[in-house]
Specification:
The chain contains eleven helices and 13 strands. It is α+β, with helices and mostly antiparallel strands.
Length: 319
């Protein structure tokens, strides 16, 4: 184990070499620590004053968290695999090309060298009124997500609608992926969509000491797929709307969206259903508010544009 002191944040920095060691450290620093994978989300939040744990536990040296392999009828991807690896990995390209595309859509090349899959599905929800410097947030008055009393973006509501911005989460959910995490001795595997709460202040319900170990994607489902991402600059930008749609060989359609709600918006349908009914359901499920570079109305409109196009793509690919 190595320890060091961060110059700017005055946190203890721990480097466990095994899952067991990481779990012990988490137990020892319960309530005051944060896991770090690539650090591309958590460290930016620290610099903006939105994350202030006094202990950082870097998971980068734990061998169990790496690897991409077929196992038990699934593709198992270690949580610490980088998005750069995913976008070019032969197994991922062969078995889950939509995930490779989703990984490629995240940020920019330099970021994807460090950013991991586990960190991506757990990256913090975002809002124009929250992802600002400390002095900015102080000057407008703090909102619910930073210990204030009201939601500023909605003009005073008592709920937070910060957006899920992970681009791989909708792709993984549309592919029926499961997340695996270890908490002490217990290992749990559950559909990925179940870890998201829909509450922008506390967007996930994993136990505080849980370490995400892998994502499991089912094989042999014959998915055709379509993926879209709306953002201001193609070269580097968080999502304003991500849509992922799959059609499996049994005729089942699954839609998952990010960027328009605190949680992934998920809609399931049959290939024979009226596409407009699916679009209406997706738009109804998206609690988008005006806390993004694009207006709420535009993003809701774009849900229809992307999903109609996706419907055509997934059904045409089946013919
Ligand atoms: C300029 C810029 C652009 C970006 N653009 C995008 C974008 O387009 N799309 C997008 O989705 N994201 C984007 N991001 C956010 C971020 O870079 C990615 O989400 C990235 O994949 C996060 O992965 P990471 O490994 O760096 O996570 P970290 O920052 O290390 O961690 C993120 C969170 O996950 C937790 N965590 C990480 N791994 C584990 C684990 N194995 N077990 C338990 N907890 C864990 C950490 O405690 C932390 O809370 C961007 C960031 C920046 C700075
Ligand atoms: S949606 Fe409201 S409460 Fe949530 S981060 Fe934005 S301003 Fe704050």
């Amino acid at each position: 184990m190595n320890t060091a002191t961060l110059p700017t944040a005055e946190a203890k920095y721990l480097l466990p070499g095994s899952l067991r060691e990481a779990a012990d450290m988490a137990a020892q620093h319960y309530g005051h620590f944060r896991f770090v994978a690539g650090g591309t989300d958590v460290l930016v939040n620290r610099f903006q004053g939105n994350e202030a744990s006094t202990c950082l536990i870097d998971l980068g040296r734990i061998p169990d968290l790496h690897g991409i392999a077929r196992a038990d009828g699934h593709l198992r991807i270690g949580a610490l695999e980088t998005l750069e690896r995913l976008q070019g990995d032969p197994l991922v390209l062969a078995e889950a090309p939509m995930l490779a595309e989703a990984a490629r859509s995240v940020g920019a090349p330099l970021l994807r060298k460090a950013a991991t899959l586990g960190g991506n599905v757990l990256c913090e929800n975002r809002c124009l009124y929250y992802n600002q410097s400390e002095w900015w947030r102080e000057s407008v008055g703090y909102c619910l997500k930073c210990n204030g009393d009201i939601c500023i973006a909605t003009g005073g509501r008592n709920a937070c609608f910060s957006e899920l911005v992970s681009d791989t989460a909708p792709a993984l959910i549309a592919l029926d992926a499961e997340i695996e995490y270890a908490d002490g001795q217990a290992v749990t595997r559950t559909p990925l969509e179940r870890i998201y709460t829909g509450d922008g202040v506390a967007p996930r319900n994993l136990p505080p000491t849980a370490i995400v170990t892998a994502l499991w994607l089912p094989l042999g489902r014959g998915f055709t797929w379509a993926f879209h991402k709306l953002r201001e600059r193609q070269s580097l930008e968080f999502t304003s709307l991500t849509t992922a749609m799959t059609l499996d060989s049994g005729g089942r359609i699954k839609v998952a969206m990010a960027g328009v709600d605190p949680r992934p918006v998920v809609v399931e349908a049959a290939a024979t259903d009226d596409p407009e009914a699916v679009v209406r359901k997706a738009i109804k499920g998206a609690r988008a508010i005006d806390n993004d570079m694009f207006t709420r109305l535009y993003r809701r409109e774009m849900i229809g544009v992307y999903l109609r196009d996706s419907f055509n793509t997934v059904t045409a690919a089946r013919m």
